Each structure stands twice: as structure tokens, then as C-alpha cells.
Amino acid sequence: MWQRRTDLALEAHELWRQNVGERPGVTTREQDAFGYGVTVVEVSENAAARALGKPMGTYITLDLKPYWSHTEDALERAATAVGAELRSLIPGAKTALVVGLGNDAMTPDAIGPQVAEHVLVTRHLMRDEAFASLTAVSVLVPGVLGRTGMEAAETIRGAVRMVHPDVLIAVDALASRSLERVCTTVQLSDTGIVPGSGVGNRRRALNRATLGIPVIAVGVPTVVDAATLALDILEEAGAESVDPAALKGHGGVMVTPRDIDAQIRELSRVVGYGIDLALQPLSYAELCALMG
Amino acid sequence: MWQRRTDLALEAHELWRQNVGERPGVTTREQDAFGYGVTVVEVSENAAARALGKPMGTYITLDLKPYWSHTEDALERAATAVGAELRSLIPGAKTALVVGLGNDAMTPDAIGPQVAEHVLVTRHLMRDEAFASLTAVSVLVPGVLGRTGMEAAETIRGAVRMVHPDVLIAVDALASRSLERVCTTVQLSDTGIVPGSGVGNRRRALNRATLGIPVIAVGVPTVVDAATLALDILEEAGAESVDPAALKGHGGVMVTPRDIDAQIRELSRVVGYGIDLALQPLSYAELCALMG
Amino acid sequence: MWQRRTDLALEAHELWRQNVGERPGVTTREQDAFGYGVTVVEVSENAAARALGKPMGTYITLDLKPYWSHTEDALERAATAVGAELRSLIPGAKTALVVGLGNDAMTPDAIGPQVAEHVLVTRHLMRDEAFASLTAVSVLVPGVLGRTGMEAAETIRGAVRMVHPDVLIAVDALASRSLERVCTTVQLSDTGIVPGSGVGNRRRALNRATLGIPVIAVGVPTVVDAATLALDILEEAGAESVDPAALKGHGGVMVTPRDIDAQIRELSRVVGYGIDLALQPLSYAELCALMG
Amino acid sequence: MWQRRTDLALEAHELWRQNVGERPGVTTREQDAFGYGVTVVEVSENAAARALGKPMGTYITLDLKPYWSHTEDALERAATAVGAELRSLIPGAKTALVVGLGNDAMTPDAIGPQVAEHVLVTRHLMRDEAFASLTAVSVLVPGVLGRTGMEAAETIRGAVRMVHPDVLIAVDALASRSLERVCTTVQLSDTGIVPGSGVGNRRRALNRATLGIPVIAVGVPTVVDAATLALDILEEAGAESVDPAALKGHGGVMVTPRDIDAQIRELSRVVGYGIDLALQPLSYAELCALMG
């Protein structure tokens, strides 16, 4: 009953624990970052990785629920928290390429392109000594296959060859098993990414093995699988067990909250500013002045 | 178990029939319009109206599922079908006010404002003899309370007093109980409308009693209540009965399909052109030439 | 040679002075507001009003050129300056209606609708005691005749009757004679406004005489008449006098700077926040926290 | 007096002829394409190329003024005319990369990105036999340096290496010397392009020499240099000669018509469909059905 669709390592691990119990090769710890809860899942063995369906590596999940209470400093603290956790995964980069994956014409898939709007682009300013202390950042929004005719991974590979960044940061929309995590959670991992799909496709994977540089994935759950949603709501309501096979008819139908437009718009700024604070030696106030 | 949230008279009646059986004061008939299925529900008695939670009147539901196969003439046939059914509810108007309700900044709520973009506006051309055969149409997009400080119903009442239309056509987003009906169904009714809510609120109701003119409602389901969705998916999957009271925690969370942007964009044209064909003595080809 | 097209009283007066000399019934004074230059033109006699082609009243022009240097506090100071000057024209209003005139689908004409996005809407919150100290503000974006079939003035009159505001503030795009004033100038006046045209049209004028409440006009020059632009550039370049009649062919062709999109976007926030600071007892920091 | 800023070979040649007379190495001919006027300028000698400031090659200029009368078949004829002339420059390509240059956040600079929206993307469908007769087309919108940190030419070079197209078609905004040509003219040439500037910059030039494939430039004038505009308006008005040096103060200020948004939106479809008809074995009706 636990084969639910989720792109979050945290949820995959919760499901595992619920159904099978603890297993070797996975550890979790909880911590706090500027008032936001953080869970770190480390997958350190191959068998555990296969069982969870996630590559080995570190998965950091921030719980940004408190952001939505919109206290006066909510944006500053949320961006600072994302920045601090992200920085822990990036090994001292002097140049970075930030990639906004997804389709900017489909709201829940537009988080990548919208985050890109909030990334401080600096690579073209590097000849100016005034900017010498900054990390050289460039930004790419490769679009989706149906609108470009090119795999995002191809376009990214071409850009990496040109720009030679020390690190690639790729932002993408994820599926969660729970409506409550949609637009309240950010997952950071050092495991790379397969644009456009959770299904492994070696040719399209972007990671240290295929690109020769660290690839940091920044994922934001923006959709929920309709059948998974049904199972979870029913379980909470105390329903007797249901045969998930019977739900096949709804497989693949992804739903998203009604007010996703506003949520994506706000969260894009949180994540974009977080990336800026992770990459640049700037205070939050300095960043705001630069971004207008 | 049937207190599911739906704004569609067709679904309310289905639920009733499923749970209680046929009842007097409601009749339904099915017909075809240019290849699209049409169901007409007539609620002719007060008791039936109270039972269904819908005012007495005629509810015409078009099933536009075939539109999404995108055959070459899909748009023409769908708009023509909407136009023909809508015309059956409008008693020979020479002037009309079309109102696009909802929030244009929230995709599933933007169907009203987006339909308004496809309505042929003619009221200001009426002094020109070349347009003498046309119906005088004006368009209002009143916005939502949180962004204007004014009830949509107030703004509409003000406009009706100025424009003195023979008929008011109000387009709004609805909630369906079924994901399958989202963006595949259009409901037309002659019962008026209460902007912003299914809950009756006399001060805000727009209908013949409050405005003195016929008020035709055009509704498009674009969201589904999460708990209702769960119940329906589980029932299809053969789950034993669940206590709906246990689902309260999810009450009011509305979800929408991931690709709602494109669906709203396309359906807005279908509905807008349908309204044009209902109001104006134009062929589909003439309309397309005018709309560009 | 001075029949150049301008909606700015300041420019009309400059042209007059240049060509005819000082005249009775018009006084000007210059002052400073938070680092921005302010010119106040008072037209106090009917003959002077006719000569300038502007109604009698007070015209306050802010020179916001320094804003575009984007120093860290540029937005705060510019919004505060607009707010302070605007407040000097508003006689202690407890309720206000802010109207964004123009066409949001045409960039240089979209300043009104875009300013409306930055106005703090409060009228619907007034029953809540927490907001008792605020001015009750509602916002209307009436659209343009070609897209609604209704004169903006009609729609506004309808809303004024419903809302009964103490003051109407109407924001609109203007034509300047000089490219340098485009998006660097804001004109505030207590003379009312004629939506959509500088040409007087009694039926459509919005002012104290027609509405019974003060009507404050907020104008931002966003376009320049092509022929006027040519004359000015040539004069600066030392050209001999040209017969303006010969320029008729270009009459009415309005041009705008290439980067008008970004200019309108930024200036809308300056003006919108200025209106908020004029109407509400809020500090700039409190306003920013509320507007997100 | 003829050093006016223009990106159109036709205008450069007109200015030359006006001021200096006919010269060897340049020929022009006029023809008709589906009711639209076409002027072909051939620059066949190096000395002529230097004199005109344009590389040797063929420049085809279509006059689309009649399009704006919006007769019922205006779009079909205009797209067909662009398609036919463009096809004459493309040597039987089986694969093509179409590039939309410019900044989609600045209306007059957005013609490239907006044309890209109307290009039929097919490269990813080529494994399907149903599409075997089509040309494999991919689309790239590289963005601008300030928002990506990468030169458009770099990004394009990377994509060309990946996709190996038979031909590159690059769409960009141009400056005209005349307001009348703005959004009424399309220039096609086989000479390649230097993204972002008329100034030669060898590293950034995209042409057969640097890429090894034909590079077709599609240019649409959307802006006019303010000083050039002034000179032209004044000359028409019969002004005595003016020293152009005196206009330096306005050098580089580009202006655009007030209603540029709608003009760009419409013309993008004309040009995009024209590219589709040049590349694909489709009728106009078939194309419309595919593009929706």
C-alpha cells in the first residue's frame, strides 16, 4: 500500500518506515534554521537507495509552513534558511550556473523559470573590479521539449560546456504525496537531477558522473497525484484498507491547489533569494537593494 | 454520504437519484448539439429546489469532452453548440451586458475574465448604421472584493442601472464533484447567480427578482473539493463506506488539474465565441474574421 | 510656434512664458520634497485657464528624475514625496475611491491599471476594529470604451453612487512635449479629469461640479507627440524656425521610449505607494510589510 | 546629412542614392508577393558593402502596410508572402533551428521571442512516421546578457553544436529611420546576424563563416532613433538643413509607437506562420489547424 507517488526523499522514507520499519543505510536528523524546521536524510548505501527509489546522497527538507503567516520578517528568515542549508551543499564555488527547469506556461510547473527571475546574474559583470568579490552566476531557462524540440538536459549540457561553472544548481517542481507539503516545502540535494521525469534515463541525467561537476537539485512540491491524495485523505479519516490497484484509473492525474498562482509567485522569491544568499557574500538587505 | 460539494445541478441531481431515488419536480432529458451531449435538468417545484440546493429553473449542461481531441472543427462545433443552447435561454435581447466574474490572478478562477476577452463588444458602435443589425453588447469585469473593496454584485448593479440591458449574462467558475468534469463541462441556466459563493445571500443575488431582467448564468467547473475527490476516487475503487464527517479536516481545500492554464485559455475562447454566436446574427466564419 | 501638444500644466505655462511672457492669473513656485524638485502652478483666473487650456486649480509637478539612479532609498523617498504632495490636495478624507484609467493591454497607457495594483484596498475590512484607524479605500479599473462598450466616466459615476467616497483619485497617462519628462514626472491636480482625452466633453468630465466630491487627478507622462518631439529636438539643435502647420501629417502619432515596460512597472509602484501614504496613517515600513 | 541610424539595407541604400547617387555593386528590383510589395537589394561588391555598412548578400524587404487594413485574408496573404520570400533564401533544409533574439520583457525588443511562440516545433516528433515529411525544427530563445550572464551568440553556438541544423533562422528587432516602417516591414537576408547590435563584433557574429551553415536573418523594425525621426519629420516639413552634429544629445534614444504591444502581437503571428510555411510542406489551412 505504500507505492505512492512522491519525489520527496523525506516522504519516501516516512512511507518506508511506516510500512517496513527502520532500515540500514538511511539516517535522518532534525534541526532548526532561522525558525524553520529542517530534516536531513542521508542515504549512504546502495540497497537503501534502491529501496527508496532515490540516488545515494544528502536530502535536506525545509518546512516553510510558518512563512505563510506572513510576519514582517518571514521572507528574510525563509530566504536566509534556504541560503544557509544550500550553502552547506555547495563546496566553495566561484562560478555557478542556475537552471530553471519546467514550463513557464503551466503554473505549477513554472517554479523553476520563476525562481530564475530572482537570481542575481553577475557573470557578465566580472571584468568590473567593483564586482570582484561576487560569485560569477549565469542563468538558463531551457524550456520544455514540446516547445523547443530539444531535451532540457541537452541544452544544459551545451551551456555547461560554454560556461564551465564550478557548480550547477537546478530548480524544478516536484510531486508530493501530501497537499500540505505543496508550496510549504523545499528539498535540497546533492544527487543531481533528471529533468522532466522521476524515471531514470541515463542519457538525460545531470549529475557529477555525467557533467563532471557537482549538481545541486532544488525541488519544490507543487502537485499531488490524485490517487495518492485520495488514499491519504481516506486513511486520515480512518477508512479500512483499499486496494491501491483499484486506483489505477486515476494514475498520473496530478492536481494542485486552486491558489497555486500566488503561492508559486511568492515561493519563487523565497527560493531565488535563498540561492543568491548561498552563492553571494551579501547580506539580505544588500540583496534586496540590488534586486529592487 | 451524498453531501458532496458541487455547483452543477446535473451532479446534485445524480447524487440525489443515487441516494434517494427519483423525485417529483425534477425532470431531465438528453439531447445532442453539434456532436456534443446535452443534458437539460428542469427544476419546477420549490420542494425539489430546496432538496437539490438549487433555485427553480432550467439547467443545461454541455459535455465538451470531445472538444479536447482537437479535431479540425472542434472549436467551431463547440462554440456553435454553446451558442445554440445559450440562445434557447435568451428571450430575443437587443442589448446585453456580459459579466466576467472571478479573480484574473488565480488561474482556475479566471475563466470569467478570460471569457470576457472573447466577447464581441459593440455597444459603442451602435450609432454607426453598418452595425445596426447587431445586438448592443457591453462587457464588465468587476474583480473580486479583496482587490477592489467592492462586492462584484454592487458593481454589476451599478452597471445595469447605467446600461439598461435586456439581459445579463454572468460567467463564473464552478466547483464540480468530479475531476472528469473540470474544463469539459459548461452549465447554462436561467436562474441567476450569486457571485463569489454558492451560499445564498439575498443582498448579493443577481436574478430577475433583484434586477428586473433575466440573468443567465454560464458556469464552468474548474475546481474540485479535495475531500469530495477522495470519496469519489475511493468509491470507484470499491472502498467500503467512509464517514464523511471524518473528512472535515480537508473541507474547503479546492484542487485543480496541473495543466489548468492551457485548459482555461482554450475553453475561454469556446465559451466567449459561444456567447457571441448566441447574441449576434453572425456565422462562425464572420465572427472569426472580426475577432482576429 | 507654441501650439505643441502637452497635458502638463507646467509645460503649457513654460510655452506660454517663452512665447508671450508672464501673465496675470498664474503663479508658480518651486520647493523640495524629500530631495525631489516640486513645482506648483496655481491657475486662479478664468482668462488664464482659457489661455493655457487647463481648468483653474492647483497643479503640482514632481520631478522624479533622481529616482532612476536607484539609490538604496530612492523608492522610499519618491513614494513619500508623492504622498506628501498628494495629501496637501486631499481635505481629510475618511473614504476614497482610486480609479486606474487607461488600457492595460497597451504599455504606455497601462500606468493607471498598474498603479491600482499597488493601492492598499481596505473598504471591505472596515467592520474589523483592527482597521478602524485606516481610510476606507476601494479601487476601480474601468477599462476602455473599445473593450467594454461603456465610457469610463459612466462606470466611475456608477461606482461613486454606490460607494459614496469623500474623494476620487484618478490616475491616468499623459502626453508630454518632452521625452525627458516621460516617466520622470508626476502631475497632481485638484481640477478633476476627462478620461480618455484632453478635449473637453462636459458629459464625460469628472470633477466637483459633476460628481459633488473633490476629484484629484494623478497624471504621468508616458508618451510624446512625434511632431512635437521633432520640433523640440530641432530647436535644441539650433534649427531655424519651422512652420508647424507643415507637421500636420504626423499629428497624433504618439511615441514612447523603447524601455517603457520597465519604466511603467517601477513608476506604478512609486505612485501607488504614494497614494497609500497620502491616504493611510502608515509609515513606509508598515506599508511595505502590508503590500508584501 | 545622411548618417542616420538604420538597420534596413533598403533605407541605407535610399539614403545613399539620395545623397551620392547610384553606385556599382548594388542592384535593386521590385516585385509583388501575394499583394504585398517586395524590394530586393543585392550587395555584390565589397566596396558597396562598406559604403552601406551592410555585409554583402541579398536583402529582401516586404512592405506589409496593407496587412493592417485587416481584410479577411490579410493574415493568410501576409504569412504566405513572408513564407515564399524566405523560402527563396533557404537551400532545401531538412532540419532548422529558429532563434528568437531580444528581451521578452521589453515590448519592442520582444518580437523575436514572440515569433518563437508561433513556430511549429517538430524535432522531437521525428521518430514518428506520421511526421516523416516535415522539416525537423527546434526553437531557442536565448535571452539577453543582463538576464542570463551569457551572450546570446554563445548560447546559440552551443545549441548549433548539439542540434546540427542545416540552417539557422534568427529573428530580431531592428531600428528603422522612419516611423512609417515600424511594424509594417520585414527584412529577410542571407548575410547572418550580430545579436544585440549593429556594430560588428567578430566574436559574436553568427554567419556561414563562423557557424558553417547558412544563417538567415529575419528583422522587423520596431524602433526609431529619436534624432533621426526629428530630422525626417522636419525635412518633410520643408525645414532648412540642420547640422546633425547638434543632435548628438539625443543619440541612442530609441522611441516606438504607443500601441506597439498590439502591433508586435499581431506581427509575430505573421512572421511565425511565414517561417512555418517556408520550412514545412503545409498549406495555410493545415498550419492553422496545427497551431490552434
In a nutshell, what does this entry contain?
Four copies of one chain form a homotetramer. Helix content of chain A is about 35%, strand content about 20%. In chain A, strands 1, 2, 3, 4, 5, 6, 7, 8 and 9 form a nine-stranded mixed β-sheet that branches.
Feature tags:
homotetramer, 292 residues, alpha/beta, Rossmann fold, 9-stranded mixed sheet, 10 helices
Indicate the structural class of chain A.
Answer: alpha/beta
Largest interface: A-B, 35 and 35 residues
Strand segment tally of chain A? 9
The first-level CATH class name of chain A: Alpha Beta
- How much is the radius of gyration of chain A in Å? 19 Å
CATH topology of chain A: Rossmann fold
Question: Strand percentage of chain A, roughly?
Answer: 15-25%
Query: Could you estimate the helical fraction of the residues of chain A in percent?
Result: 25-40%
Q: Which shape of chain A, going by the Cα principal axes?
A: globular
The figure for the number of domains of chain A is 1
Name given to the CATH architecture of chain A: 3-Layer(aba) Sandwich
Note the total helix count of chain A. Answer: 10
What is the subunit organization of this protein?
A: homotetramer
**N-to-C order of helices and strands of chain A:** HEEHEHEHEHHEEHEHEHH
CATH superfamily of chain A: HybD-like
Distance between the termini of chain A: 49 Å
> If you average the pLDDT of chain A, what whole number results?
89
Show unreliable segments of chain A.
Answer: none
Described by strand count, sense and barrel closure, the largest sheet of chain A is: 9 strands, mixed
